[in-house]
Amino acid sequence: MGFILDGLDTEDYDRQYSDRDLLRRVMAYFRPYTPHMIVVAVMLVLNSITGALGPVVVSYALDRVSVDPSQQSMLLMSGAVMLFGASAWAFNLIRQWISARVAGDVVLKLREDVFNATVNLDLSFYDQHPSGKIVARITSDTQDFAEVVNLVLNLISQVMLVAVLSLWLFNINVLLTLILIGMSPFAVVIALSFRNIARRVTQNARRATATINAQIQESISGITVAKSFRQEHAIYETFSANNKLGYQTGLRRGLTLNTIFPVMGASSGLGVALLVFAGGLATRDGSVSPGDWYLFMQAVGFFWFPMMGIASFWSQFQDGLSAAERVFALIDAEPEVIQTGAEPVDGLNGAVEFRNVHLSYTGEEVVLPDFSLHIRPKETLALVGHTGAGKSSVARLTARFYEFQGGQILVDGRDIRTLDLGAYRRHIGIVPQEPFLFSGTVLDNIRYGKPDATDDEVCAAAMRISNGEWLADLSNNLDTDVGERGANLSMGQRQLVALARVLLKDPAIFILDEATASVDPFTETQIQEGLETVMQDRTAIIIAHRLSTVKNADRIIVMDHGAIIEEGTHDSLMAQGGHYADLYNTYFRHQSLAYIEGFAK
């Protein structure tokens, strides 16, 4: 089985739950629906009784016809069979309807819980785990979890049917009934023998599905890059390999779960042969009537079908439990960012201080070994340095997106770990290097910064960015549809929307990771004007790529391997002729020349 498991490693947040723990968690979701489940139980009892009475009436009719073969008796017996059949159908319909409603409500609540737990996890969680695999747990696994409900209810119904028939058959002939019941241990042994392997192959099938989902989502998201490098065949080959893996695990699962029925069928055949022989002997010596013998033979079907259902239940039940296990593992995933308090944050002046901060994302490579920095309120601080210098880490820690392993981060003199995280982040405004826009209009995306803002407030925020001149380039002003991930807008326009979104939020601390993508000079000017508006009267931490941003900053921090190697204004750093001057001459000056050439064109 090793070749099938290649690429199906568990996630680091996966955990093993005992069946008892899983059932306890499952039952907790059904507890609010106890009255509904009581009605379902009553319907199950009535359905089992009326379902069992049908063959009993037929058995009685077979014996009665030899004594009173009148038409009236036959009509009466036929009417009784129809009545019991119709009653069983009605009770089962009510049970199925209520069960479906309860199962739907439970899945609704479970999805709400798992989605809420997921969105509250740290960014480091999303760095480590593909989004496609997370989506699979929230959607398909929660739906499969609901199947446990139907399995349990069907199991109860089948067990009750067996119990009712057994009690009736004991009154007719104890020996034949004991023979019939004596077959039960074989069904139980067969079912339990499939239990562990069923859980294992089901888990592997789900991991394969999650891997396929993750690869498909990644391929579609990066289709532009794939096409630009003519790699459509490569991503198809990757999909094909994952798809074959899914086929192999799915086939193994299907064979495992379906093997139980042929095995049970063979066992039931032996049981039928034994009852035919024993019942025939009992009928010949007169201890059992022909009608009772018929009832016993009918009971074999009524008995073995539920027993097959009970036996196969364990393999199918493992399917539902494996889905529940994956869902609960995601719910129980522990965040790395841990707050030691929840102090209210009514407002911020914007002072940020790093004291001997130690940061490592993986526990191996150290990003910030012993970092100290004090940012004054309403100061514009530009962070520059080569890739991997630690600039983005400073911004991420300020927003409390990641956990640091040593030192302190103070905001207005208060330890960042003691603040109410939700309240604190309401005072943080962030524009990432590639601004993300949600499906909808420009107005919807700006309003995302302040959901309760009126249309007039959104419009006012948009107009404050470069005096609203950028809106004229949109096809339908603020009502322009941005497309998926903002595909209908240029990179520059997306940045302008993101700046307006932050401006509407009006944060005390503004964090910007400037995009490196080149834009036309006119849009560049609009973006710079928008930046100046946003940075006014608030603390701004800028990972700077534009020359204008660097030169206009109150202070420039030059970083290298997680340490500050230079700081000062643009003029003072250029006068030093150090690392910043070299960086300026090799990057920012070239950028400035390219800008001038582009403007001239």
Kindly describe this structure.
It is a single chain. By secondary structure, the protein is an alpha/beta fold. It has a domain of 330 residues: ABC transporter transmembrane region fold (Up-down Bundle), CATH 1.20.1560. The strands form two sheets. A six-stranded mixed sheet has the order 6-7-8-3-9-10, with helices on both faces. Strands 2-1-4-5 form a four-stranded antiparallel sheet, covered by helices on one side. The longest helix is centred in the middle third of the chain and has 53 residues.
Keywords:
alpha/beta, ABC transporter transmembrane region fold, six-stranded mixed beta sheet, four-stranded antiparallel beta sheet, 10 strands
Task: Give a short summary of the structure.
With 601 residues, this protein is α/β, with parallel strands linked by helices.
